Structure formats: C-alpha cells, structure tokens
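Instructor's aside before we start: the two examples that follow are unrelated to each other. I chose them only because their records fit on one page, so don't look for a connection. First example below.
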Amino acid sequence: MQSLSGDFGNAELKTKMTELVSSAGAGSLVQYDGLEAYISRINSYPMLTKDEEYSLAEQLRETGDKEAAYRLVMSHMRFVVHVARGYLGYGLPLKDLIQEGSVGLMQAVKRFDPRAGVRLATYAIHWIKSEIHEFVIRNWKMVKVATTKAQRKLFFNLRKFKRSVSWLSSSDVSMVAQELGVTPDEVTEMETRMASTDVSYDYAEDDEPEGRQLNAPCLFLEDRTSNFSLKYENANWQKCAQEALKEAFDKLDERARYIIRRRWLDEKPATLQELADKYSVSAERIRQLEKQAMDTLRKYIAEKKI
C-alpha cells in the first residue's frame, strides 16, 4: 500500500486542502469572500453512499489517489460546518472554525480504514472536534485557560453548563465535579479563569479606554530586582559620609593625617614599625596615635548624624 504521508503530511494539511478545493473550482478554503456562498457550494456537493465511501477509501489506501481523497473530503465538509457552528459561542469567526475542522477531517481521511465497519462521519467526528478544540483553546484568550487534557475537558463541559448559569453555586460545583471526575476546587479555579479578562501589562493611554488605564499591572507589580529609592538613599548616604569624612580628616593634625593615609588609604599599607622609624618613636606609640585619630573621625561623623 502506498504511504499517504507524502500527500497528506501534518504540516501540509491546510495547503493541500486549499489545493483540493481550488482545483475543483469551489474557491480557496483559506481565502474566500462569501462565507454563505461557500457553505452553499459545499452543501450542493453530493453525499456518498456507503458503498461509494468504501470504494473511495480503499482506493485512497491502496494507491494514494488524490481524487478519491478529494471526494471523501468534500462529501463530508457539510458535516464540518455543522460541527463548527456549535462552537460559535466562543466568539471566534465561523470561517476559522470551519478551516480548523477541515484539517481534522483531512486527518480522519488519512487514517480512515473502511474495513473497520464504521462510516467516515462517525470516525471523523473525533478528529474534527479535536482540531477545533485546540483552536479554541489557543485563541479564546491570550493566556491559556487549559493546558492539560483534564483541564480541556473541564473547560468545554463547564462552558456548556454555564450557558444558562452566571456563577455556579456550591451545589452546582459539587455536581459538575462529580460528573467530570474532578475536585470542586478545580471546577472553581476553571470558572475563575473563564471569567477573567485579558489586560495589557503596560500602561497604554492611547489603547486603554478611560477608567481602565490605571488598572495596568505594571503600575502595581513590585520589581524586587530594582529599588530606585533604596539606590538613591545609598548613593546619598555615601556622598554625605564621604563629605563628613573629608571634613573630619582635615581637622586632624599633619602627623595623624599621614599615619591614617599610610595605614588605611595607601595601596600597600605601611607597618607600625615603618612609621615608628619615620617619627623616631616606638611602634606602640604609632598604634596609640592611629587609635586616637580613628576615634576622632568616628566621633565627628557620629555628630553629623549621617
């Protein structure tokens, strides 16, 4: 049996669908102006009998015949439109829902085995809904509301249930959780996600309507990596401390200033003995003079109350 991967690979499904429809003069599925005219056109395409469907499916599996694939797809496109209409409540364009559903139909045609004893429509419903579900989840909001299989199941079932209910009561939450096999907390969390709205992070005066401009998260979220006030305080303290230290240093006598400079400010600090030799005193006397100078500096800075 010839492989169909070359003709109907996942990355080429939409392109092939466009080529198939265009080649028959029905117009592009991706680009069409009159949606109703397009739907009317595909509804006029004849439906297949069970024997015709079996024969075309076998032909496709054995030879990879594109014409057989085209007839199988086009005879079931009205089914895709019917399924897509059921998802209009999510606020997404019908033409986009149809296009995604057609990708699922192509997947189903690619994998359909007529010898399994089921009709293509029965087999294809899973693939059509799966592609539409993925599209809805990706585009319903900027931030995904459901990422796991369990969350997606909860999302779609809860959406259907809430068509007639604004907010779920505690009994409703328990009932939904029991029916879907999840915890009440998961139901409540999903309901909250579905009720939330997308908000721009940045303050955008031109884009945001009046009254929502002050709701931008950037105005409320704390940036712990940058504290301008603390940086300013530290810089100001260092500046004041340096000025006070200079003033205090200038009040020392010449010998004390020299000792402090040689012991604390030089790249290579002098030893007590080196300074003792310079002033012809003992090393202990240099230590005492150093201590007195340091005490004077500390006292002066403390009095400045920096």
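Example two begins here.
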Amino acid sequence: MLYRRDLLSIEDLTVGDIENIFNLTNYLKTEEGKNHKPLSGKTVALYFEKPSTRTRVSFEVGIFQLGGYPLYLDNKSLQISRGETLADTARVLSRYVNCIVARTLKDETVRELARYADIPVINALTDREHPCQVLGDIYTVKEKIGSYKGIKVSYVGDGNNVANSLILISSKLGINFSIASPEGYEIKNEIKEKAIKYAKDSGAVIEFYNDPTLAVKDADVIYTDVWVSMGEESEEEKRNMIFQNYKIDLQLLKLAKSEVKIMHCLPAIRGKEIAAEVMDGPSSVIFDQAENRLYVQKAILSLILG
C-alpha cells in the first residue's frame, strides 16, 4: 500500500507498489470503478511552477472524479512570490489540504515540500524525474502488449527527466531498455548506476547508445520526447542541429518489430522528434498513453489518500 506516503521518484516504489497501482487502474477503468470516491471531502493542492496541459487537466479531473476538490496554486499567486519560505508554505498547506501535487522547476523544491509537509507530496514533474508519466506509460505498454516483462523499450532522444524515470521503472520491472542520445546529452551516471543495480535483480538488459538505429533494433516499443524541454528554449537552435538524426520516422520503424508501439509523452513537435505520419499511424498509442495518465493518477491518489 502507498497510504500516506510521498511519491517523489520511481525509486520510492517497490515492484509490488507498481503492480498495486496497475491493478487498481484496471478497476478504475471499469463502469463500477467510475463510482469509486475515496477522496470525498478531501482537498488536493496542485502547486505548479511550470505550464501544463496533460498533467494539470488529468490531475484536476481525476481528483474531481474521485470525489475530491482540486485547488490549483502557482508560485505567483502564493506568498512565496513575496518571500515566504517554501518550508513555511508546506507547513501551512498541511493544515488546510490533504495532499500536495507539485510540478516544479527543480527536484529539490518538491523534496523540500515533502520534508516540511505533514501530508503526502506527489511529484508531478521536476527536472530530475516524471514518475506519474512513466507509470501511465508502462501501464499502457501492459494494456497494449499484454505484459511488460522481458519486452524491449527503446528510447530515442534527450536523456531528460522522462528518460530518467523510464529507465528506472524498466530496470525495476524487468523490461529490457535501450536508449540512444547524442554525446553530451545522455542520462546522467547517477541514474545509470541505479538502473544497472535494479536490472541485476530483475534480469533486465540495459543498453546505452549514441546511434538510434542500434537502439531500436527489434524493439517492442519506441519512445521519444521533445528535443527542447521547458527552460531550455535558449538552446533550441543548437539542440535542433544536434538531434536532427534522432527523429522517429518510418525508416527507423523498419528496424523494430513489425508490431512495434510508438509512444511520446507530449507535447510533440511534429516533424522534429517524430514524423506526423508516425504519430498518426497505426503503430502509435500516443493518445491512449495520454488518456491513461488520468486513470493511473487516480489509482495513485486512491492508494495514498484512500
């Protein structure tokens, strides 16, 4: 169970925790599950320092559907903007609400909230990880393929927060994982070492490449993300040049398995990291993947607050 626990990283979850989330997600997608209201009378604060479409909407809708009240807050509307400390903000919110969902620029911010809050804190994205995203992703893999154990997920692109969480969850669950990133844009050694350690226990094969054609060979799933994340806009021209050979197009798909599934955490820049014909093609499960964020996050909230 996750009851009254923080979810700051995939590292916080055991394999059993992940399976519990997926099992409850299955139930919440049924007609009976739509009447599940464990958050009745409870308020969840959504503290967002970054713009958001899927994360904000899926959490707000999910909290409402579970019978709770979503309270959206940004740092400009709080007294943080006038100098109140994050620690004091966390202490005060703990007296008013039942949980904090935080989407922050820095990973240390969500950890500081958790350090001083007396209520659970959920990481809705930081510069280090995006755990709720990849829980929805791997749930989608299981839903579409039937299992995740022993399949191959290939990630092509920047070794960013999504890639960090994806390699951690894959290595924990026994999913073979390969990643291709340009030199200098790879996953950091700290995350690599943790993934390799988890893989020794699960039996997962973890591979690192600079060449995307090597990474996607015989892949069951090909995953990509934007080349320029929020906060990196000043590097856009440079990154577009460096990543130009890391595009998911029909030619690259030919190297994977014939039934390969294409995933993207969105938003997508069509024609850059992914070709429009791939995104809209028969292999794409991108919008099912986005929808499943809603159900998986409802499961997480139910297990933490229910």
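The two ends are 10 Å apart (CA to CA).
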